[in-house]
């Protein structure tokens, strides 16, 4: 509880003075009688309670009235949050080469896609006010999840992204184009594509640099990530007897092309050769693309003066009533 005019509470200091003056004035009151024979038979009762009852009622009434005059009120703090959100499209390679198990996670070999999904999940969970969507691609690209603030749905769509959903290949240009189409009409202050691949563009009808030029025209920034080791990577396959064996397959990452895409749009190229470096890359992008949040705090008050005004008036009325009945003084 607070007061609209707290300085008025200083008047409470006058209550003891008013009480003192009231008692002093009461003692001074005298009436002269020529003959007091008729008053001798009147019995008087000296009671400390009666003596100070009226004075106490007056002091209490003054206390309540002064507090009411100060404007007591109860404040409720309300916050209004304005955000300048970032719209992010996650573009993830699900081509066959993402089966390669050259990453370690929790002490065991995992496929590139499994590790990427785990780290992307962490990235999504760290965002709070941004719309995020997802495009997956291999030989062609499609929107796995449109831009949304429902991160639960987004995480479900991430879990459902699997190798083999599309024809094999690496259509980087098509993937960028699909992501740009989702972002181009966005009113967000910042529009970002985070593209992860482990290969070289070898499918689709759109050249990656052409797609990057289109992204630049819409002021869309592209961060590119090259995942996996260069050269040979172990990919699990089944042998003639149905056992899982590892076969080394040559995998190349287009470092130069991915770097050009990022530089052209004002983004940055990252190289991830293990789980920890990939995690640090997404954490760095998370720090670079932070949402601007502005919080305005204001108070909404509920006036409480009536809770003190009513008792103060009732006490004052009671004092007047008693002073003219039970505690009436003889002239």
Would you spell out the secondary-structure blueprint of this structure?
Elements: E1 2-3, H1 14-28, H2 48-69, E2 72-84, E3 86-93, E4 103-105, E5 108-110, H3 112-126, E6 132-137, E7 141-148, H4 151-160, H5 172-183, E8 190-197, H6 208-217, E9 220-227, E10 231-238, E11 244-251, H7 255-265, E12 269-272, H8 275-288, E13 292-303, H9 306-323
Parallel strand pairs: 3-6, 3-8, 8-9, 9-12
Antiparallel strand pairs: 1-2, 2-13, 4-5, 6-7, 10-11
Helix pairs in contact: 1-2, 2-9, 3-4, 3-8, 5-6, 6-7
Give me the oligomer status: single chain
- Going by helix content, strand content and strand pairing, the class is alpha/beta
As a percent range, the share of helical residues equals 25-40%
Report low-confidence residues grouped into runs of 5 or more: none
Strand order of the largest sheet: 7-6-3-8-9-12
Helix-strand topology string: EHHEEEEHEEHHEHEEEHEHEH
What's the β-strand tally?
13
Major sheet: size, sense and barrel closure?
6 strands, mixed
How many angstroms does the end-to-end distance come to? 46 Å
Q: Looking at the structure, what is the overall shape?
A: rod-shaped
Number of alpha- plus pi-helical segments: 9
Measured by DSSP, the beta-strand proportion falls in 25-35%
Integer average pLDDT: 83
- Rg measurement, Å: 41 Å
């Amino acid at each position: 509880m607070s007061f609209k005019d707290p300085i008025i509470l200083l008047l409470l200091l006058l209550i003891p003075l008013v009480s003192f003056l009231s008692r002093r004035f009461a003692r001074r009151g005298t009436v002269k009688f020529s003959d007091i024979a008729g008053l001798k038979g009147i019995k008087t009762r000296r009671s400390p309670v009666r003596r100070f009852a009226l004075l106490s009622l007056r002091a209490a009434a003054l206390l309540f009235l002064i507090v009411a005059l100060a404007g007591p009120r109860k404040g409720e703090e309300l916050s209004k949050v304005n955000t300048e959100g970032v719209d992010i499209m996650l573009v993830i390679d699900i081509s066959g080469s993402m089966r390669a198990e050259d990453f370690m996670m929790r002490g065991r070999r995992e496929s590139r896609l499994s590790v990427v999904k785990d780290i992307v999940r962490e990235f999504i969970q760290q965002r709070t006010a941004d719309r995020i969507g997802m495009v997956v691609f291999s030989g062609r690209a499609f929107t796995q999840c449109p831009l949304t603030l429902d991160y639960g749905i987004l995480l479900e769509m991430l879990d459902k992204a699997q190798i083999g959903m599309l024809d094999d290949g690496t259509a980087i240009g098509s993937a960028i184009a699909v992501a740009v189409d989702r972002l181009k009409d966005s009113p967000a202050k910042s529009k970002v594509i985070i593209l992860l691949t482990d290969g070289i563009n070898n499918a689709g009808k759109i050249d990656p640099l052409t797609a990057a030029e289109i992204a630049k025209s819409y002021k869309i920034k592209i961060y590119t990530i090259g995942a996996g080791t260069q050269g040979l990577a172990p990919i699990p396959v089944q042998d003639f007897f149905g056992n899982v064996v590892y076969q080394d397959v040559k995998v190349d990452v287009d470092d130069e092309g991915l770097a050009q895409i990022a530089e052209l749009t004002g983004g940055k190229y990252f190289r991830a050769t293990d789980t920890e470096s990939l995690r640090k890359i997404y954490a760095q992008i998370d720090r670079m693309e932070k949402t601007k949040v502005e919080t305005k705090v204001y108070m909404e008050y509920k006036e409480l003066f009536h809770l003190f005004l009513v008792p103060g008036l009732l006490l004052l009325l009671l004092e007047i009533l008693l002073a003219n009945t039970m505690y009436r003084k003889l002239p």
